[in-house]
From TrEMBL:
Region (Disordered): 27-48
Domain of life: Bacteria
Name the record gives this protein: Uncharacterized protein
């Protein structure tokens, strides 16, 4: 049982490291600058 838990921890740690590397390597989302025209609100109402 201990070896299975140890293997699971190792697997999750490696998956976490890969996810963090992929996140850091990805392009950042575009910035929304104040004063620029924003897309319409999805519900059709004014933005909050």
């Amino acid at each position: 049982m201990f070896r299975a838990s140890e293997a699971a921890i190792r697997l999750l740690t490696e998956a976490q490291a890969r996810a963090e590397e992929a996140y850091l390597a990805a392009e950042p989302p575009p910035l929304a600058l104040p004063g620029r025209e924003e897309p319409p609100h999805p519900t059709g109402g004014p933005p909050c």
